[in-house]
Design goal:
Length: 277
Amino acid sequence: MDAGLIDAAVRRALDEDLGAAGDITTAATVPAAARARAVIAARKAGVIAGLPVAARVFALVDPGIGTMPCKADGDVLQPGDVAMEIEGPAAGILTAERVALNFLGHLSGIATATAEIVRAVAHTRAQICCTRKTTPGLRVLEKYAVRCGGAVNHRMGLYDQVLIKDNHIAAAGGVAAAIIAAKKAAPGVKIEVEVDTLDQLDEALAVGIDQVLLDNMDPAQLREAVARVAGRAVTEASGSITVASAPAIAESGVDLLSVGWITHSAPCLDLGLDFRG
């Protein structure tokens, strides 16, 4: 991850938490000279992600705080496993605690949810990919967490790939018209088109396409779609894919399964920070 992007996200979160007055509870109760040792440990099993982000929170609150990761992002934690050791001014550790845990719990929750659905399709050649359904301002971090969970990223934003969806098709006057216009406007850029029917797929293949998003098709339709594509384009299935439904979809032969909930609805992984003597 880019250090500048991490710092920008962390500074926004700290500004939100500290406001103009700062940590008034810690300032009132903790002697300035007090020092402490602490650990961040898992309270539930999961995949850790975001350790560099958490470390940066402590460093920006007080450069005198030292952090030592005990695991690497992408590692599986069991309850009680220590992910990070922390030592330094007690006041700084307490001030940074919640923001560090917010980032670490959120990103680890995404990695954990991602790993679960990745395991569900591990017997196939298909890969899980994420979407643009991310928390505003946190996309880079969340897509990093997806990779920690074993999946791959789709486009990062509107700027790095053409993805023609149903409303683009309606506005352009049809599947072929939209693809032809995109090829003319963005030569050399990968173009993907969303199709809802096999007829739309045939129309896309007739003019040539790099990737096709097969939306809300059942496994039988997906198998037929993969047969018609016959390796001429990357195939991606989408549409409310769950851990339970993913295996049958992956077994259709598609290359990718597009899953939005791993970023927009993944529960936080339960992690805690505790002082140690």
